[in-house]
Amino acid sequence: MPPSLSRLLQPLLIRAFAWEARRNLARFNRSLRDQRRVQERTLLEKIRRNQDSAFGRDHGFAAIRSVADFRSRLPVTSYEDYAPYIARVRQGDFAAMFGRGQRVHMFAMTSGTTSQPKYIPVPEPFLTEYRAGWMLWGIQAVRSHYIASGGRMRVLQFHSAWDDERAPCGLPCGATSGLTAQVQRPGAKNLYAVPSCVAHIKDIQSKYYVAARLALAHRVTVPLAPNPSTLLGLARAMDERKADLLRDLADGTLSGDLDLPAEVRREVEGRLRPEPERARELDQAVAREGHLYPKTAWQLPLIGCWKGGTLSLYLREFPRYFGGAAVRDIGLIASEGRMTIPLSNDGSAGVLDLESSFFEFLPARDGQALGGEPLLAHELEAGREYFLLLTSSAGLYRYNMGDVVRVDGFLEGSPLVAFLNKGAHYSSLTGEKLSEHQAVEAVNAALEQTGLALGSYCLAPTWSETAPFYSLIVEEAALAGGDGLASLAAAVDSALCHENIEYRSKRDTGRLAPVQVRLAARGAWTAYDLEIVAARRRGIEQYKHKFLANDLEFEKRFPDVRKGVKKP
Predict the structure, then answer these.
(1) What is the 3-state secondary structure (H, E, C) of 2-34?
(2) Neighbours of 560 (CB within 10 A)
(3) Quick one: CA torsion of 172, 178, 181, 183, rounded to 10 degrees?
(4) Where do the structural domains in the chain lie, given as residue ranges?
(5) Helix (H) and strand (E) counts for the chain?
(6) φ, ψ dihedrals at 420, nearest 5°
(7) What residues are paired with 520 via a beta bridge?
(8) Sheet holding 104-110, edge to edge
(9) 478-537 tens-digit pLDDT
(10) How far is CA 201 from the centre of its chain?
């Protein structure tokens, strides 16, 4: 579509999508007031749809007529319960998990508890619900900021490729967000500054450059990415290469030193045209302010990213790069499904997406389940913490996400749910979802590789404004042949990349810095373990040493005994 025609039609397209979204929003608001009935209907629709699948027959779906029937027939599950069925689906046997006639588009990939990734099937109903959830979030987030944009806003969205690899049956495996970008309606694609092909750029600095180059042609932008660290990376890259970007903008070119697939370069260059006036405008702004930050380049009515858990730490740096732009959490979303839709810029809590999934909650405290029967959404209490169980159209039932959430209040009787962390045995600084099992496997592999011996240790998240990292905390007397600390740190870092694909991605993109070894004082671990045993008033025989921490304050208990140690 010619650029002039695109600009003319954009306000009309926004109004058309807004009308459709408002209709869905009215239905969504009605569902909040009738959550018990809506949740049962949502559950039974999924049961009926898949009752003739192998999984449905194996678990008596045909006899399920109520929530109580469902809970009596299926236990709480984990990925391992579905692995044999998913393996069959990956071979092309879709009836292993799904009813007759259901099309499977792809497999969403995410980190598993072992070195093998999890593969979550994405059938047509799941994709429909996933897109509907994004539309509901979008219209709620954008409509309060639309007037300020003059109807000319463009979305600058970052997402990953949906076809990083292929399953044995030939279906792509990758990111669901990449698929939704791929299947957008033609009119909707004109609202986005960056085409879906950019997802195939593996070099992160090249991806940042291309995204900035395309978006700088516009004056009003809504940056959107799950991780706020991605948006900070974009902001820093823009400033570092401002001279190249403004020259390319003026000339209608794309720098030749970028690491791009040939087909991506062709598609991107086909969209470019000289913008000398816009380049002069930005050049003058840079001369005044000394930087080319997002707040310099664009009017920013809104930013969308995660705000919960440790990711809130990144938001401290947003004013420097994004000024006073409003920031709204995009909701609790995973490969397994969308859980919440935030309706406010305050905090990170959102209402449950009641029509897409069926939800249950295990009461929790300090990252540990308290026992007892799971609760339904209408049984939750404000201020309490829970593990979230999900039943979604991905073919997962009573699936323990491992996510600890908190109820921050209620809207129309429906709980407002905020993500806290991945539970006592997980840590996630920027979305890597590292498990204690992976930490132990990585350290064991590193010790075998380096020939070192190690007693007690713990891998702990450590904050740094440049890039956070994990500290491997060991006692100064615990290492035999202890002059190999740098080799041990490098080996653990490499092993973590092997064990966890999300950790590898964050390391490749610079969102995580390498592992650092911290030498604690002699006897530090014994003292700590005895302190915790005494505090819990339980016997030492019931105590389990912590090999992975998920608290950013934890590492501060163990000062490095080396003087003048430099940190990243």
Answers:
(1) CHHHHHHHHHHHHHHHHHHHHHHHHHHHHHHCC
(2) 18
(3) 10
(4) 30-124+331-421, 146-325, 427-557
(5) 20, 23
(6) -110, -55
(7) 475
(8) 118-123, 104-110, 172-174, 165-166
(9) 564 445 788 999 999 999 999 999 999 999 989 999 999 999 988 888 788 778 757 654
(10) 19
